[in-house]
Automatic annotation (TrEMBL):
The keyword Metal-binding does not apply. It comes from Solanum commersonii (Commerson's wild potato). SUPFAM superfamilies: D-aminoacid aminotransferase-like PLP-dependent enzymes. Its cofactor is pyridoxal 5'-phosphate. Pfam families: Aminotran_4 (PF01063). This is 4-amino-4-deoxychorismate lyase. Belongs to the class-IV pyridoxal-phosphate-dependent aminotransferase family. GO terms for biological process: amino acid biosynthetic process; carboxylic acid biosynthetic process. InterPro entries: Aminotrans_IV, Aminotransferase-like, BCAT-like_C, BCAT-like_N, Class-IV_PLP-Dep_Aminotrnsfr. GO terms for molecular function: catalytic activity. Keywords: Pyridoxal phosphate. The keyword Metal-binding does not apply.
Amino acid sequence: MASLPTLTKPISETSFFLPKLNNLEFLRSKIRPLTRSNVFKNSTFSSDGQYGPTFDVPLLSCSEVIERMRTSREGHKTKQLYLAMYSSVFGGITTDTAAMVIPMDDHMVHRGHGVFDTAAIMDGYLYELDQHLDRFLGSATMAKIQIPFDRESIRRILIRTVSVSKCRKGSLRYWLSAGPGDFQLSSSGCHQATLYAIVIKDQSPPDHRGIRVVTSSIPIKPPQFAVMKSVNYLPNALSKMEAEENDAYVAIWLDGNGFVAEGPNMNVAFVTKEKDLLMPCFDKILSGCTAKRVVVLAENLVKEGKLRGIRVENVSVEDAKRADEMMLIGSGVLVRPVVQWDEEVIGNGREGPVTQALLNLLLEDMKSGPPTVRVPVPY
């Protein structure tokens, strides 16, 4: 395995990139006018098979592409800021969003042959980095991706990327891909597996209000693919969109036997009328790092008498909808109360006390938990 590569000077500071644009007029002044030498003439077909009017497609230089990319980014309103990106393709970190790109022939792009994971950044610490990293490398092995660096080198790259970003509260998302090489189906022509990482600062205010969910009509992934965190997220995206179209937050998947499975990017859990924390088995769904940590933290509520016990087993829809409380658990939502599933109200239709207690325990763990779950970032 290769060792940690030398982190080069950020691409945004090299002579390859032009200064940032202040406005669109500056962009127009720098892009050379369209001439016969740099414009392709093309035509469109009308419905009757005849050629329609021609349109011009400019042939851009590399610097012009970067300028247009930067201007497009600056003109796009988003609640997420991308503060730093690492790519093993160029062997370093950039803080210029115009340079946060990956090759089109990367098999993760056109074949979905890649895996990813995410770790939260809280008060300058990476939360559960090692737990997520272990799952990440396990997913890569299941996806038959040859890991390009040893585990410690990947860990150092990820921490260094967060350090460069100066982000103290946000998230770190990272990918392993089969790599660039060609547009074939097999990854045998790929030069080398690639590692990417990006630091994201979400400016959306936290929201822990109760939400409504629906049952997904989108088929759940087969267990072989559901247990690995791959970039094949089309079913997940369609499931989320289906929920939004029905005025719900997310749609909940059922497994092949009709038991409760998971949400599109989070686990689910319930508090029964007997005050047991009930969570579906992980054998056919993604083993959620946050969900497993919540199970550990929930032992405190058992000691305090707020929970009778903790069970991880098959959960029927009937039992789930009869529960006193329902919650979504994941690194993005943390612990989010569910107050309605389809047309049925969960419990009394309000955020439950156990759900709130688990959220508080998780937030406390993220801010002051043991070294096993909090990795300091050397800014």
